Amino acid sequence: MTNIIHILLATSNKHKVQELLKILPGKTKSGKVLIYKTLADFPNLPPIMEDGKTLEDNAKIKAVFGVVHTGLITLADDTGLMVDYLNGAPGVNSARYAYADRCDNKANNEKLLKELSGVSASKRSAHFKAIAALAMPTGQLFAEEGKIEGRILTDFKGSGGFGYDALFYVPKYKKTMAEMTEEEKNKISHRGQAFRNISKYLVEL
Q1: What is the pTM of this model?
Q2: Topology, domain 4-202
Q3: Is 142 helix (H, G, I), strand (E, B) or coil?
């Protein structure tokens, strides 16, 4: 139907998909319905080679991959945790901080705590950064950024979220990302900012 536009979210992360569906628009300005699919809807696709040197590189790689392999308008993102004491690490390697060949959130967090063992609270400043990329079948490619400041705790707090959320404390809100409600997190998070910014292109489709 011409009043429906299918958008591919270039991820298979269920937690991320749940977040994004609460952030992204459901309709365009002209009233067309936006229906979002994920990589799980295309099980035979080859793996995405995220070999970019920056978050923006990887976000664009994933977005273009989606267009090339499915023909659908594709949204993708790449997110990094930058810890000042670690000179910006884990950065672009945040998802694969502990193991280069796979994402293991538990191992990633344990490695981060080990790297910051004995480091005082004043030196544990960090920020999350997200880049959202939108690739069109026409060849157009857009990117938007989101960022939030915080610090890394010495122990986990909260049961929500995923990734490094239970260690990332946001002083302004006096809680970790994992202690926030979904509404609170989506309102202020790096990913929420980036995808709200990229949404301006979606509503114009």
Answers
A1: 0.90
A2: Maf protein (3.90.950)
A3: strand
With tokens 């977040």, the residue in question is 19
Give the CA angle between residues 146, 75, 63 to the nearest 5°: 105
Does the annotation count 78 as an active-site position?
yes
Closest CA to 140 of 83, 45, 64: 64
Tell me the per-residue pLDDT of 89-100, one tens digit each, with 9 for 90 and over. Answer: 999 999 999 998
Helix (H) or strand (E) holding 12: none
In b/e form, how buried is each residue of 158-171, taking b as 16+ CB within 10 angstroms? bebbebbbbbbbbe
Tokens of 32: 């067309």
Sequence-ordered list of residues with C-beta below 8 angstroms from that of 97, at least 6 positions apart, any chain? 89, 90, 107, 108, 111, 112
Domain residue ranges of the chain, discontinuous segments joined by +: 4-202
User: Of 198, 197, 191, 83, nearest to 147 (Cα)?
Assistant: 191
Q: Which of 51, 57, 78, 101 is catalytic?
A: 78
Distance CA 49, CA 25 (A): 28
Pick from 12, 7, 17, 20: nearest CA to 192: 20
